[in-house]
Write a structure and sequence with these properties.
By secondary structure, the chain is an alpha/beta fold. The protein contains 3 helices and 3 strands. Strands 2-1-3 form a 3-stranded parallel β-sheet.
């Protein structure tokens, strides 16, 4: 199974967040158990163990609740994926 961290501060008022979530939900269903995703709020991204994920996607919309968390996620993705 491929498990993706979707890093961002989800909001229904952000068109991109709604579209990303809908797309990933459809992809997950179509993958029949081979793909999963998990939204990781940027404050949580400051301490989450990104090693449990196969990939990291940092979503648009700013300002982030935690710029530090967003940058930590991006740094991990660049170094490990």
């Amino acid at each position: 199974m491929t498990h993706i961290a979707v890093v961002g501060d989800y909001s229904d008022s952000v068109t991109a967040h709604v579209a990303i979530n809908a797309s990933l939900t459809q992809l997950t269903a179509a993958a029949e158990g081979r793909l999963s995703h998990e939204w990781v709020p940027t404050p949580d991204a400051e301490t989450v163990d990104f090693e449990v994920f196969d990939g990291v996607w940092c979503t648009p919309a700013s300002p982030y609740a935690s710029e530090r968390g967003a940058l930590r996620a991006i740094t991990h993705a660049r170094a490990h994926h």
